[in-house]
Amino acid sequence: MRREFPRRAAAPGSKRVAVLAILLVIGSVLGLALRRDPPPTSDPVADPVEAARTSGRPTIVEFGSDSCRSCREMKAVMEKLDRDHGARMNVVVVDLLSPKGRPLIRRYGIVMMPTQVVFAADGAEVGRNQGPIDATGLLDLVDRRAETKGPAS
Asked: pTM (2 decimals)?
């Protein structure tokens, strides 16, 4: 003998909620697939850091964003360094939230903003600072590491 149970009616709107949930999941997956960063490039036009690193001069790069308060403060420090010492070193500011800056996050291993990276004249990375730093501190990194190409003692 087969026993039948009465079916309960679905709550009003529950099908609509289920469909919306499924569409939300599909949209999220598609959105993530479309947001992937483009592959890193060694094109100096697309990568201003690469162009500066291969110029034969020490280079200081500021990785930040205009939407970050500390980064805006660092931008003023970098402009002063460029004005006062631009003849002996490259000073580059990269906005990581711009379309050209986003691929550089992974390429240069940036984990927080602002980050300053110092490269020697041969293009090798010789120093890094995370967070704000004054011009004197950055010049010290360049003088002790980039020009002598060795770790600080």
From this structure: 0.66
